[in-house]
Amino acid sequence: MKTIEITASAPTVEEARQSAVEQLNAPEEAEVKIEIVSEGKSKVLGLFGGSPALVKAYYEVEDDKFEKARNYVDTILRSLGVEKSEINFAVEGEDVRISVSCEEDYGSVIGRRGETLDAIQYLVRLVINRENDEFKHVSVNVGNYREKREATLKALAKKNAARVRKYGRNVVLEPMNPYERRIIHTTIQEIEGVTSHSVGSDDERKVVITLEEGVKPLQGGYQGGRGRGGNGGRGGRNRGGYTPKETASSDGESAPRAPKKDFEGSLYGKIEVNKD
Q1: Cβ–Cβ contacts within 10 Å for residue 165, how many?
Q2: pLDDT digit string (tens) for 23-50?
Q3: The sheet that has 137-142: what strands, in order across it?
């Protein structure tokens, strides 16, 4: 709890009390308490000595541990041209969720591919953890951008997982931040037959979706040659999903197949943010 207090002086205790309460200007719901510091002394013969009465008026409010972070976010928003905004904090254990709503276009706050919003989130996390003894996980959301983004990433993961499962070729997605990669990995974990891992470093780190070890693609590849004797019948076309064995080389070892080129996953699309 934080104490808000005012000390006032006046010739009498009542006058000092009234002055302290007026200067305190406490909210109507606050419980104002009065403490008489000194009742004062009357002047001798009404002319000499004496001292005024001192009265302290105060009330207690719950300390806002995130006041500095709130002011910091507001300062950033104003620098981006957002003059009026509503900033709400929701705290649950180690998680601090900050939601921002404003009348202006969210584009300048979100930035290209959410880069500006991620930068704001990073800076606010530093401010909050500097002011708190326990580490906090901080997320900053503008409008419903994060929800829209999560839905887009989940759809992306499912779409490319289906390609991997069908053709057996890896899919390499464009670079993403840790938050977005985690959404991709979590979604892939729920899909049978495929797995994912990350490659690269820093801003170039990206997710690769592959078949699980021992899992064969649903659609067999074209292996036979033309004419008679080709695998899979006429023209060597593979029918019924049958995958023929590899052809033996002259030295008796299995000839390796040509490496399959990875697909490049399309990641980013336009996301409309709902201001409601």
Answers
A1: 20
A2: 998 888 889 999 999 998 877 666 666 7
A3: 85-92, 95-102, 137-142
